[in-house]
Amino acid sequence: GESVGLHLPTLSVQEGDNSIINCAYSNSASDYFIWYKQESGKGPQFIIDIRSNMDKRQGQRVTVLLNKTVKHLSLQIAATQPGDSAVYFCAENIQGGKLIFGQGTELSVKP
Amino acid sequence: DAGVTQSPTHLIKTRGQQVTLRCSPKSGHDTVSWYQQALGQGPQFIFQYYEEEERQRGNFPDRFSGHQFPNYSSELNVNALLLGDSALYLCASSLPGQLLSYGYTFGSGTRLTVV
Known about the structure:
The complex is a heterodimer. Chain A is an all-beta fold. Chain A has no helices and 10 strands. In chain A, strands 1, 3, 4, 8, 9 and 10 form a 6-stranded mixed β-sheet that branches. A 4-stranded antiparallel β-sheet of chain A has the order 2-7-6-5, with no helix packed on it. By secondary structure, chain B is mainly beta. Chain B is 3% helix and 50% strand. Chain B is built from 1 helix and 11 strands, in the order βββββββββαββ. Chain B has one helix spanning 100-103; strands spanning 5-7, 10-13, 19-24, 31-37, 44-50, 53-57, 64-68, 74-78, 87-94, 105-106, 110-114. The interface between A and B is medium-sized, with 31 and 31 residues.
């Protein structure tokens, strides 16, 4: 499969700090990218998206950056809160709804 | 407004058995996609159904099959279960041609354990 590894990378931050989660994608033809948040026992929840013709998009407390040259995405979360603790996945759209997910990063926020 | 509903939430099956998982899409959605998420990994695309037909398929064997009903609900069937089929099975619904973003909604999944 496209996802490998049994142990998720972990990012631990202090409440109130900014968090940056990185992701490398695989397909140069991908035209759309999405960040999802997944809490324990739940399905992925949409956070923010970006089209391939953009390099930055901002939402409420979140910013996504896209670098197509090196096929890299990042998610920035401002003023991280305990409720932000979850696993974060980037996903690339290959063909109309066929999403390829990255491995994921576990974000742990210390109060 | 109910989101995507999946049943059952948990299931234990024996190796070699067959299993059927069910998904009801979000109201107004007519396209259903299924994903398999192994522990500690990202979801992997299994297939997508629209107008009661399989439209796209990921890299999964023929043991994995599906169906979509006229009311847009869907089933995922797995035959000859293997231990490696143990995973969280996620269903996502959407509208065709709609930008994925807010319109692509996941259910909470069915946790399948094969023993």
